[in-house]
Amino acid sequence: MYDRTVQRARLIGPGVLVAAVFAAGTAFAQTPELSGPAKPFDTNGNGVIERNEAQGPAAVNFDTIDLNNSGSLDGDELRHFFAGGPRPASAPAASNADIRLPDGKTASGPPRARVELDAVIEEQIGQTTPVVGRIVARQTGPVAARVNGAVLKMQVDVGDRVDTGDVLVIIDQERMQLERDRYAAIVTQQRANLAAERAGLKQTQNELKRLEGIRNSVAFSQARYEDAVQAVASQTGNVAQTRAQLAQARAQLKRADRDLADTSVVAPYPGIVSETQTEIGAYLSVGNPVATIINDRDLEVEADVPTSRIASLNNGDVVNIRIADGQVVPATLRAVVPTENPRTRTRPVRFTPEFDGIVLPLANNQSVTVLLPVGGSRNAVTVSKDAITQRNGQNMVFVSNNGRAQPRAVTTGEATGSRLVVLSGLRAGDLVVVRGNERLRPGQRLVDVDASPTNDRGGG
């Protein structure tokens, strides 16, 4: 039996070999001595398997097999674990629910759940008062036409998302193209005129130079010399004038190019098209709106704060903002606008929120609640929001109780950042599941993925 078992185990692998050779000892009588198949693992020959000699399941479950806590495994303990042999009389009662197999399962029950745990803590939280606010886009408004012309194409519709530079409307380009071609021809003409004037200047300069060369000769004519000087000056002026006309023509051509490009009305910033103000065939004048864009990626919160509370606010203060679905995000006070409503005695205050990670679609003018700090602080027990699950309409958490999932009903109060104030159901120091709690079952064993392999965390 031993030979057949060992031979089969070798074909399966070294991890299973240990279980096979120990199981092969079931035919032997109960005795602390190692069975024949187990003896090869006793490398130091002391009659027991030390921790450094154990392999496979014996190594994984060493502490479970070591019923008498001797730090070594004898024949009775091995046969009891692997073959269901008689339990040693001196061994305390134990549950095989603690036996770990190589695949992470226990000898009975489902696999261990891999979770993340977080401690319930007691901390200081500030008193707050709610103030109604609203989400405002820092960039929003109509995009206007820059040239006159008829609308040829509408490239967007209400609800479309656009990026900077995306075309919204195309205006008829024919007139602009003709105007551009006309100025291009004028530029060519002025270039030719400038070349001719420069040639004339060169000629007059050569004539003046020749007359200066015969100044001491009897053939020199003072009148002709003065005429040559005047001709050079006149031709120099003609060159300057033609050069200016060429610069003017180039500027007109550049403007024509700009007007031609402006026949495509583009988005000046990213966002959502909230409204269109024109249609195909409509004639636009400079300044007429074509579409309204809301930049939903650059949002702030504005709240009308009572003047009596303004003195306690400073730029850079961090407050919490509650959105409609109950989510709470931090926000930094950016500015207190120096304008007061004489009827409500409030002043607009701008906050820069941290909306990263918010999956709820946000809208311009959406109502929010700003939680302004007032008074002093107090101690409160808080729990991570990620620990809360809804079961049968009640807030529940899973507490790690000796490494097992224990469901517990909780009552929570106000939010403070990413945590909730605990009114009942938990106490400081409890370890609750914050990741992997969606499919947990009561009593299921837990493995904290953030804990070291030798330190399974388990709260009270």
Explain what you see.
The chain is an alpha+beta fold. It folds into four domains: 2-98, Recoverin, domain 1 (Orthogonal Bundle); 113-134 and 298-460, conserved putative lor/sdh protein from methanococcus maripaludis s2 fold, CATH 2.40.420.20; 139-171 and 268-296, OB fold (Dihydrolipoamide Acetyltransferase, E2P), CATH 2.40.50.100; 173-262. It is built from eight helices and 24 strands. The protein has helices spanning 2-12, 14-23, 56-60, 62-65, 75-83, 174-213, 222-261, 307-310, and strands spanning 49-50, 72-73, 113-119, 121-137, 140-144, 149-154, 161-162, 167-171, 264-266, 271-276, 283-284, 289-294, 299-306, 318-322, 328-336, 346-353, 367-384, 389-391, 394-401, 404-409, 411-416, 419-424, 431-435, 446-448. Strand 14 (318-322) and strand 15 (328-336) form a beta hairpin.
Quick recap of the structure?
The chain is of the alpha+beta class and 460 residues long.
Write the layout of secondary structure elements.
Layout: H1 2-12, H2 14-23, E1 49-50, H3 56-60, H4 62-65, E2 72-73, H5 75-83, E3 113-119, E4 121-137, E5 140-144, E6 149-154, E7 161-162, E8 167-171, H6 174-213, H7 222-261, E9 264-266, E10 271-276, E11 283-284, E12 289-294, E13 299-306, H8 307-310, E14 318-322, E15 328-336, E16 346-353, E17 367-384, E18 389-391, E19 394-401, E20 404-409, E21 411-416, E22 419-424, E23 431-435, E24 446-448
Parallel strand pairs: 3-24
Antiparallel strand pairs: 1-2, 3-23, 4-13, 4-17, 5-12, 6-8, 6-11, 7-10, 8-9, 10-12, 13-16, 14-15, 14-17, 15-16, 17-22, 18-19, 19-20, 21-22
Helix pairs in contact: 1-2, 2-5, 6-7
